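Below is one protein, fold included:
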Amino acid sequence: AKDFISLLNQPGAKFELKRFMRRAYFVSNTKKVDRLLEEFRRDAVHFAVVLDEYGGVDGVVTLEDLIEEIVGEIFDEHDSPLEEASVVRTTSGDLLVDGSMLIDDLNINHDFDFPEGEYDTLAGFFIHSLGRIPALGEELEFKHLKLRVEEMSHNRITQVRIVGAKKTSDSRTLQDQSFEPSHPGKESNHKGPEGVKRLNASGVR
């Protein structure tokens, strides 16, 4: 944004985007945080495009991302720690989990044992277990846990409620809110992971 400050006092100046374009800064997805941080400092870079082993784009990384890997989450006056958290524990003891949270991270940080499969995230586990896209409020059981689709954006599961989770120190607390379940989804003959029981939106098998 600072590149455009010089135009503020020149309302009649001719704008040419090419003048302000910069060459993208590419890094490998195997580069260590400390080495990349040093490169950012040396080259005055705040943003890089991350490439995989085939040269495809894996994502982007910012200076803030690197700092947060070292010191933890950083919140400014516009951020809400609860909104940024991937896992929030309600006062009733349930966990509200971002649908995009990795199964591996969930297992490690919260002492779960969700199985590995053809999915990486909690939303993927839910969809794989049902064999279809669930409806809002739809539930399933996995061992001693009950999982419910708490929020959806179109066909994407954005938040899942986990009931029966053990208490850990890796979740923030949120005042619980009432929930009105949606209509149940259609029945499916799909067989999900071992130990999973499909429920309808009212919790009935």
Observations:
- Residues 91 and 175 are 6 Å apart (CA to CA).
